[in-house]
Design a protein that fits this description.
Strand order of the largest sheet: 6-5-4-7-8-9-10
Strand content: 5-15%
Order of helices and strands: HHHEHEHEHHHEHEHEHEHEHEEHEH
Helix content: 40-55%
Largest sheet: 7 strands, parallel
CATH topology of the largest domain: Rossmann fold
Structural class: alpha/beta
Distance between the termini: 22 Å
Radius of gyration: 22 Å
CATH architecture of the largest domain: 3-Layer(aba) Sandwich
């Protein structure tokens, strides 16, 4: 089910669809929209399982009770379920998400950007490519590299935790974390140091944002943070643009042009045509590419097919989302 049928078949590849056909009586050639369901209740009255991805429509609790009287599980082959999950969960229906699968490419992207940032890659590349050799040399001579550096991680949820694990596995770095929900015991097990947001920005060569996207985090990253960034430091955002006060980031980057921002997300997205982000030499924009792309999407449907098998076999579930989780997850 999805209001975007094209997205369904970009995520559920032939292998996943074939596996579902073996396990169920599902018609893999049909994708239902909310309009389909509401126009003919017979389609959904016996439905026990829904397989979906981006474009999953919102249903109120009243609609759920009317059109899905037999529904037990939703398998969502994508990340955030915030826009649709609550009424289903409150109706006693299990919701499963591939947010852990989508975390993998974001973490891979982030770690690569952190390592490049520690080498001064972004500004050095810009200056060298524009024949500004002295400025390129200044970057080269002043960055400290990765060995023994401080890396700041904002948010230690699914993505942030995976970034930390990848960094701890392959690099000798000190990881500082700001996350109000991270317990001291878990921080100790992860080998990270919990710090305030201000200390993280002032003490780290690279700061990477992975905050959950909710009302509490909107506008959390402002001038009080960005003004603390040291020379030759980099802010990376693969979280959400709404968490950043854009004018404050721009102000801090203009005040010290050795500071750098690598932004895969903005607010609005893409930035408005007149945004200074397009013309600043120390801002590097990508078009929301950190998450799953192309064949990486198939991983998400594989996670949901495997979770469905666990349900059928009454095994321990790996990707279930609960009401409690909605308060802290993206």
């Amino acid at each position: 089910m999805s209001n975007s049928k094209d997205k369904v078949y970009s995520v559920y590849n032939d292998a996943a669809l074939f596996e579902l056909k073996k396990l169920t009586d599902i018609n893999i050639s049909v994708c239902y929209t909310k309009e389909d369901i509401l126009s003919d209740y017979c389609i959904s009255k016996d439905t026990e399982y829904i397989f979906s991805t981006w474009g999953m429509p919102f249903f109120s609790k009243e609609e759920i009770h009317t059109v899905f009287p037999s529904l037990k599980h939703i398998f969502y082959a994508a990340g955030s379920v915030q826009h649709f999950a609550r009424p289903f969960l409150e109706s006693g229906i299990y919701v499963h998400s591939s947010y852990k699968a989508n975390a993998i490419p974001v973490a891979e992207y982030t770690v690569s950007q952190i390592i490049l940032a520690n080498k001064g890659f972004f500004l050095n590349c810009f200056y060298q490519s524009n024949n500004l050799k002295q400025k390129a040399a200044d970057i080269r001579n002043n960055v400290k590299g990765t060995y023994g550096c401080n890396v700041g991680i904002i948010g230690a949820g699914a993505i942030g935790s995976l970034v930390i694990s990848m960094l701890k596995t392959s690099y000798k770095v000190n990881i500082l974390v700001f996350d109000p929900f991270l317990s001291d015991d878990k921080a100790l097990k992860m080998g990270v140091k919990k710090v305030s947001l201000n200390k993280l920005f002032s003490d780290c060569a690279v700061i990477s944002n992975h905050l959950a996207n909710n009302e509490q985090t909107k506008g959390m990253l402002d001038y009080s943070c960005f003004s603390l960034m040291g020379k030759y430091s980099t802010f990376i955002n693969t979280g959400r643009g709404a968490q950043v006060i854009e004018k404050d980031l721009i102000k801090a980057l203009k005040e010290d042009t050795t500071r750098c921002a690598v932004l895969d997300v903005t607010d609005p997205e893409p930035p408005s045509d007149d945004s200074p982000l397009f013309t600043m030499q120390n801002v590097f924009l990508t078009s929301h590419i950190a998450g799953s792309l192309s064949e990486e999407l198939y991983r998400m449907s594989e996670y949901m097919v495997d979770e469905f098998k666990r349900v059928l076999l009454k095994e321990e579930l790996c990707h279930q989302v609960t009401l409690e989780m909605l308060s802290t997850m993206a």
